[in-house]
Amino acid sequence: MNRTRYRTRRYSENPTAADYTREETYAPTRAPVDHAVTLLPEAYASDEFFTLERERVFTRSWVAVGCLSQVAEPGQVLVVEVAGRSVIVGRNKAGELRAFHNVCRHRAAKLLTQGAHRLRGKRIQCPYHCWTYDLDGKCLGTPLFEGSDIPEDMQGIFDMGGVKGFDKADYGLLPVQVDTWGFFVFLNLDPQAAPLREQLGDLPERLGGYRLEEWQVVGTRDYEVEANYKLIGENFMEYYHLPWVHPELVKVSRMEDHYRWQGPGLYTGMCTSPVSRNTEAGGWEGLPPIEGLSESDGQSGRFVWLFPNTALVVLPNHCFVIIAHPEGPDSTREETILLAHPESMAAEGSSAAIDQLAHFWDLVNQQDIEIVQRVQEGIANPAYRGGRMCYRFEEPLHRFQNMVIDKMVGVERIPPGDEQTATPMFVDPPKTRDWTRPAPGDAVA
Question: How far is CA 11 from each of CA 23, 265, 278, 304, rounded to the nearest angstrom?
Fold first, then answer.
């Protein structure tokens, strides 16, 4: 493919649902970033694309659903949704993390409502016919078990122990793959999925100095966003928009201090180094940093988008997370989580510092929501058929969009990283991947 064709290519109008799984559909975005066109508009607005994306991206990827401190003890459970499917996450009596589809094996009633729960007796009881399960997914009663509300003289009526062909051992909860990294809990609906470690690539090493597994949730807030989840992610991945959208943020995260910061893995990354001091509008200081950080970690902010739908910000003294839950092609529920390390929270004045951080992140997030909603409105205009990438600042978007394309067309691969550990954005960019050419090890599912 020559340079002229890269420059003139644009997406055709009126693609069909079948087109969304074909490699040739995405040729304008497969080109190197300095020639590439953004992902086709229907990826952000089409019901057909959204339905396919749920199945091809969200049921076949490791998806962050919460934090370890939310399920720290046996009996604590989270009920979350992935690709429209409700899942229960909790710890068994041995403290091991387990996950199950939130559906009774009797008549398919939903067992628990969305959100966090503390289970009485560390058991899950169906509200319909009282079938009961432990946190290993084992069926305990149908409904007879110790502590049942059924009067003792009536329990025999409900006993299924003598029913032919019925064995409780065959009717445990349906398992879901669960794993952890740092403070995150991940689910994968595909029972044959590769290990989480493959998707994360080199991130555990890059962020190893922060001891993320020790951090705790100190605040949460949800937002309803009238935009596609990918627009939220793509906005997070670039700082091209900072001077115009974030007048407060750009003072503590200066344009000239930004670097691309990504290795092999299903993620995009950038960093700010050094992080600037707070201004009158706020900033990232307040809590003391954790001990033992390297010089680089101690003065930097790390910004990572975990494929497919999670933003992770790691600073020396706190972390901020956005989990973007797609609810439709043009609607997303943002779950935001503020975390801190116990060392930082032990400091005098930590409560006020956490409040200040929460206020600052709310300000930044509200500004982002306003602009991505305007993008959603514009992208729905049929006249728009894709735009050119700004190659200096938008390589992470190009990287992410090609990850989405891979899943849509059935290609399984881990993108390579940059040759430099941190690539400054105000110099000539390094050579980037031509996604039209398969790399060694690429596999088609």
Answer: 13, 28, 44, 29
Burial label, 158 (beta-carbon count in 10 A; 0-12, 13-18, 19+): middle
Residue 428 Rama label (left phi>0; alpha psi -120 to 50; beta): beta
Q: Quick check: helix, strand or coil at residue 421?
A: coil
Q: Beta-strand (E) ranges in 175-300?
A: 177-181, 184-188, 216-225, 258-260, 267-272
Residue-range domains of the chain with CATH: 63-178 (2.102.10.10), 193-444 (3.90.380.10)
Are the C-beta atoms of residues 132 and 112 closer than 8 Å to each other?
Answer: no
Residue 66 tokens read as 């919460």
CB atoms inside a 10 Å sphere around CB 255: 14
Strands 258-260 and 267-272: antiparallel
The CA angle 428-433-438, to the nearest 5 degrees, is 165
What's the mean pLDDT when you consider all of the chain?
86
What are the residues facing 165 on neighbouring strands? none
C-alpha–C-alpha distance, residues 204 and 191, integer Å: 23
Spatial separation of the C-alpha atoms in residues 91 and 51, rounded to whole Å: 32
Q: Return the structure tokens found at 197.
A: 């470690």
Of residues 418 and 248, the one with the higher pLDDT is 418
| N-to-C CA span, the chain | 25
pLDDT for the residue numbered 286: 82
The residues with which 267 forms a beta bridge, in sequence order, are 306
CB 124 within 8 A of CB 99: no
Read off the pLDDT of residues 168-222 as tens digits, 9 standing for 90 and up. Answer: 888 899 999 999 999 999 999 999 999 999 999 999 999 999 999 999 999 999 9
Contact, 312 vs 318, CB < 8 A? Answer: no
Alpha-carbon gap, residue 440 to 92, rounded angstroms? 42
Instruction: Please enumerate in sequence order all residues whose Cβ is within 8 A of that of 346, keeping only pairs 6 or more positions apart, or say none.
Output: none
Q: How much is the pTM?
A: 0.87
321 DSSP β-pair partners: 312, 337
For residue 78, the cross-strand partners are 89, 116
Query: Quick check: 112 pLDDT over 90?
Result: yes
- For 391, the token pair is 């190659």
Buried b (16+ CB within 10 A) or exposed e, 42-80: bbbbbeebbebbeebbbbbbbbbbbbbbbbeebbbbbbb
What was the pLDDT predicted at 63? 98
Give the pLDDT confidence score for residue 120 in this predicted structure: 79
Report the alpha-carbon distance of residue 241 to residue 250 in Å, rounded: 10
What backbone phi and psi angles, to 5 degrees, belong to 261? -145, 80
Question: 118-121: long-range contacts (C-beta < 8 A, 24 or more apart)?
Answer: 118/75, 118/76, 118/77, 119/75, 119/76, 119/77, 119/90, 121/147
